[in-house]
Design goal:
Layout (H helix, E strand, L loop, with lengths): L3 H25 L7 H12 L3 E2 H8 L3 H13 L3 E5 L7 E5 L1 H23 L3 H20 L5
Antiparallel strand pairs: 1-3, 2-3
Helix pairs in contact: 1-5, 3-4
Length: 148
């Protein structure tokens, strides 16, 4: 990107793709989307099984009490398990439930199907250009502070 306008266009395009994929994948799965903060916490827990509430808050750059509220909501929904750390009973460790893993896999399957269908509508050169851009988008995500 050579200037701020290019960066703004890229940000808008990536944001719109994310929004459309999220909405369409959840519609295809015939379920309401979870709040984004809950999704982000589930992704952290999937990447770091057994993470503590405090550690998850650090990874999300959120207040521990905010994460505690999310944990309570997700536990009530049957999407995560809380276990006391055997070495320190004051610490709670977080793990996904099978229901959460299934929900996340189902969402990813629908998202992949949607992208595959849309990509098939592009000409081969456009598909190749998008595929070639993926490593650069991955690197951009790392530069912006992800993945956690």
């Amino acid at each position: 990107m050579s200037n701020g306008q290019d960066a703004a266009r890229l940000g808008a395009a990536v944001g719109e793709l994310y929004r459309l994929l999220r909405r369409s994948a959840n519609q295809r799965a015939n379920r309401a989307a979870l709040p984004l903060a809950q999704v982000e916490l589930l992704l952290v827990i999937r990447a770091h099984p057994g993470v503590s509430v405090k550690e998850a808050a650090g990874r999300l750059r959120a207040a521990p009490n905010t994460v505690s509220t999310l944990v309570g909501d997700l536990a009530t929904a049957g999407l995560l398990e809380r276990e006391r750390d055997p070495a320190d009973g004051r610490v709670v460790r977080l793990r996904l439930t099978p229901a959460a893993r299934n929900r996340m896999a189902d969402y990813e399957r629908h998202r992949t199907e949607l992208l595959t269908e849309a990509l098939s509508e592009l000409d081969p050169a456009a598909r190749d250009a998008l595929n070639a851009a993926v490593p650069h988008l991955d690197r951009l995500a790392v530069l912006l502070g992800g993945p956690t």
